[in-house]
Amino acid sequence: MRLTKQSLSALCNAIKRIDTTCSVPDLEKLPEVPQQLLDQSAEEILQKEQLEFIHKVTVDIDKVTKRIVTT
After folding, report:
1. How far apart are the first and last CA of the chain?
2. Dist. CA 42–CA 38, nearest whole Å
């Protein structure tokens, strides 16, 4: 869930650089995943890999947006 919050935060930051009227959702209100649910099946491992990819893309979007806005 932490990676989801980080991805959402990076994407929201990129959007706010372009549109200052955009509101960022309260990330603290997102639920945490209990530890016993973190036992990973093959499908959960695949989902985690996909989420890591999404996180990398959102961080890249944030970097590019920052570079565009500041130049």
Report:
1. 34
2. 12
CA distance 43 to 31: 21
The whole-chain average pLDDT of the chain stands at: 80
Q: Give the containing element (helix H, strand E) for 7.
A: helix 2-18
pLDDT single digits (tens) 2-33: 777 788 888 888 888 888 887 767 766 766 66
| 22 touches 16 (CB < 8 A) | yes
Would you say 10 and 62 are in contact if contact means Cβ atoms under 8 Å apart? yes
CA neighbours closer than 13 Å in the CB half-sphere of residue 13 = 17
